[in-house]
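Protein record

Derive tokens from sequence
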Amino acid sequence: MDYISTRGKVEKCGFIDAFLMGLANDGGLVIPSEIPNISEQKLKEWQELSYQDLMLEIFSYYTNDEIPYEDLKKLVYDSYSTFRDEAVTPLKQINDSLYVLELFQGPTFAFKDVALQFMGNLYSYVATKRNEIINILGATSGDTGAAAIQGVRGKEGIRICILHPHQKVSKVQELQMTTVQDENVLNLSVKGNFDDCQQSIKELFADVDFKHKYHLRAINSINFVRILSQTVYYFYAYFQIAKAKPVGKVNFSVPTGNFGNIFSGYLAKQMGLPIGKLILATNENNILERFVKEGMYKPGEFYSTYSPSMDIQIASNFERYLYYLNDQNPDKVSELMNRFRAEGQLEIGPELLGKVALDFEAQGVKGADCLEIIDKYYKQSGYLFDPHTACGVKAYETCSGEQETCVVFATAHPAKFNEAIALIDIEQPFPTEIQQLFDKPQVQTVIENDKQVLVSELERFFG
């Protein structure tokens, strides 16, 4: 398996080099040169595997044996030993057609742990084996930062700097990042929104000289290994249902802002997993809904919402889907992305919009509807959704048929977003790990949304 760029101007490379590259050196995103097809027989065999062994099977198609099997097995098992449920991502049935996949059983109570616990260990492994310097640079809308920091804090040979939008994440999200005291961690609170943070990150990774000088590595979903890690729980969820009842295709409703989590589902579907609909759930920052329904990709007004991890206008992983939508034509992708950079929008015609409809449905969810869903299901079933998951449930109600089985991703524990939960007079107990955060001192540096200010901070920290 070789790895290439969506823009076609990077030489093919192997798995570890693709992992270390993060953003491709031509400004594109790293993808596999081909997507392996998993046979029906192999899918049946995988149904009985543990989460960890399933991950090993899926990764075997992508790693080119660059990591010895026993080393990879240790990385995988170590990564999920910190999860609170032995199933890693347990599946809960809510009603006859609705299942919830709990992706928040990791150390920071969010779905990002599933990929980032593994990636942190993989970075440590590579640093040791190759005697590499690892300086991780990432941006977060809330959950990625905490999970990434937790994955690498205190590890020798690795430093991490995370940018988050100042006062635009939940209090728990902020505390999970800024109460970490380890010397290899730097939190930068940027006076702007997530898109500002992410744009700065992409510009710095696109500056190849700067990237190489400071040995920058990516932890965001621009890194393909994170996308690949997330495909595992699509397979795992499907298998849990298939073992319990006869099932054909299963729909997945995925809260998403950066298009990474749902692109992992697209990858799983292309590999042969019987996915029916991939339902893209978002909030008032609904650029992705407009694209799916109208073919127009254009940032609109930015809104701060009850689901801040989806308060994103420019989706970093969108380019990967454009590549496959345009028949894997890197020149066309480059043309489209250049047009987007110049004009601030791009539009596809009816033919391609028809192809999009074969892959996705989408639903934007208003704040009031989000709270209504939380209240409704809590009263009906006693199950408490966080606001992001509630967006996914509303999208399920809108887009998934009555006779269709649907899995909604529970992307975070509700305690991380108590500001929203409290608005509907629901009192929830906080897990001990979260409650303890409120008594810890915070360490963060607040900076202006200015590239040169950012560069100065990075040169000081990574230099």
Q: What stands out?
A: The chain is about 45% helix and 15% strand.
